[in-house]
Specification:
alpha/beta; N-(1-d-carboxylethyl)-l-norvaline Dehydrogenase, domain 2; five-stranded parallel beta sheet; 20 helices; about 10% strand; binds D-mannonic acid; Mannitol dehydrogenase family protein; oxidoreductase activity, acting on the CH-OH group of donors, NAD or NADP as acceptor; oxidoreductase; NAD(P)-bd_dom_sf
Length: about 475
């Protein structure tokens, strides 16, 4: 581009498609993953599966995407090169906080047959240690009292109520968040809220509703300001909301949709299965479990990104040891999957230098992530009397991280819905004991068993520092 010339804005080139899917939580992950698969499925097999994106809180995405006709660029960053795609499956964007009524009407539209979600772990308003709806959550308290909701469970329940009242079939609820048994979790929170509002509605959802579980995978770091300039140089137009992602992607979906209505996902490589549990466990424990371990330990060791962690031989060895000695032995592989090969592939994915995935970003919301990513593996290993000093060190690193100061005394910006409680506990005279007492994170039975090894790991971190403590793990 010559300096001084006005830069065009990215605009829609493909015709609009009728909306069949409302998606709650229009973040970078869904735009790089589900929205692309759905677009590919429509172009191969047709179907009215246009997406209406909904941001629950912020207007930013709507403000960025609307002038571009809902479209954006997805830039794939591979070790062998880059690939660009102009994604056009999102037709329109609404902001729930500004106009909850319009979102409910959209969800109740007869053409809509799927409501998908990426609202992050905390968006389900559940207790991470039990998976059950937290009735005392401020958003749930408000959604019980007011017909216009603010929470994701609130929108699902009120929209399903409209559909029931209008004699329509329910939509399929397709959760794409990194929770174990994510379909069961969302079904549980929806039914709990519906029961509290209207038992007839709850009974209808229980029999007619469908909540397939899914396993989703693609590494999509938050888009950074420098990425916008890079995209502009590549395409010669301004895209306010591009997404950057790795080449690898996987989507495993339980094939259980209301009336069988869904895009032809199998045609574009989505694995349609009867039961997703083993895939979910594998991915949450092997990928997300080591991601979180590297996030806390890597941050404390001074590493900015996952790729930086992998370039450090101490962390590279440490993460391989986590897979082979602690995580794989506690897993049942999905049929036909070799977990050692899966670990090798993860190692290569983490090392991709094109992907600048910050440890700080992954460290966010640890209270919502630890149970399914790490504590489940610890529990299985404790039951089998298998020591797991590496994962203990990772949990201990989280305990240091959430106090809000690193090992050199520098401040950390801790993002977590429980941040104030975590900080109080982590800064008390007995940080390990006080954090283990948080039952929303640690089930009581597990807290007891974890106490002594965690005290040891925590002390090792404080006295030796992160890298020496990782090196000492045998
Ligand atoms: C990451 C995930 O931010 C995080 O917590 O662990 O977003 C991870 O990149 C994806 O689950 C990969 O599929």
């Amino acid at each position: 581009m010559e300096a001084g010339l006005p830069v065009n804005r990215l605009s829609r080139s493909a015709p609009r498609v009728p909306v069949g899917i409302v998606h709650l939580g229009l973040g970078a992950f869904f735009r790089a993953h589900g929205a692309v698969y759905i677009e590919e499925a429509m172009s191969l097999s047709g179907g009215d599966w246009g997406i209406l994106g909904v941001s629950l809180q912020s207007a930013t995405m709507r403000d960025q995407l609307t002038p571009q006709g809902g479209t954006y660029m997805a830039l794939e960053l591979g070790p062998e090169g880059e690939m660009l795609r102009h994604v056009q499956s999102v037709q329109d964007v609404l902001v729930a906080r500004e106009n909850p009524g319009a979102v409910l009407e959209a969800m109740a539209d007869p053409g809509v047959r799927i409501v998908s979600l990426t609202v992050t772990e905390k968006g389900y308003c559940h207790a991470p240690s039990t998976g059950r709806l937290n009735m005392a959550h401020p958003d749930i308290v408000q959604d019980l009292a007011h017909p216009l909701p603010v929470s994701a469970p609130g929108f699902l329940v009120r929209a399903l109520a409209l559909r029931q009242a209008r004699g329509l079939a329910p939509f399929t609820v397709l959760t794409c968040d990194n929770l174990p048994n994510n379909g069961q979790v969302v079904r549980g929170v929806v039914l709990a809220l519906a029961r509290a509002l209207d038992p007839d509605l709850a009974a209808w959802i229980e029999t007619e509703g469908r909540f397939p579980s899914t396993m989703v995978d693609c590494i999509v770091p938050a888009t950074k300001p420098e990425d916008l300039a890079r995209l502009e140089a590549l395409i010669g137009a301004h895209d306010a909301a591009p997404v950057l992602h790795e080449p690898f992607r996987q989507w495993v979906v339980e094939d259980d949709f209301v009336g069988g209505a869904r895009p032809d996902l199998a045609a574009v490589g989505v694995q349609m299965v009867r039961d997703v549990t083993e895939y979910e466990h594998m991915k949450l424990r092997m990928l997300n479990g080591t991601h979180s371990s590297l996030a806390y330990l890597g941050y404390l060791a001074g590493h900015e990104t996952i790729a930086d962690c992998m370039a450090d031989p101490v962390l590279d060895r440490f993460v391989q040891r986590l897979w082979t000695r602690e995580i794989i032995p506690a897993l049942q592989p999905p049929e036909g999957v070799n977990l050692a090969e899966y670990a090798d592939a993860l190692r290569a994915r983490y090392s991709n230098p094109g992907i600048r995935h910050r440890t700080w970003q992954i460290a966010m919301d640890g209270s919502q992530k630890l149970p399914q990513r790490i504590l489940g593996t610890l529990e299985t290993n404790l039951g089998a009397a298998r020591p797991c000093p590496g994962l203990m060190l990772a949990v201990a690193a989280w305990m240091v991280y959430v106090r809000g100061t690193d090992l050199a005394g520098q401040p950390i910006e801790v993002k977590d819905p429980l941040a104030p409680e975590l900080r109080l506990a982590a800064c008390s005279d007995d940080p390990v004991g006080a954090l283990l007492a948080l039952q929303a994170v640690f089930p009581q039975r597990l807290a007891q068993a974890l106490e002594s090894p965690l005290r040891k790991a925590h002390a090792a971190l404080l006295t030796q520092g992160a890298k020496a403590a990782m090196e000492a793990v045998q």
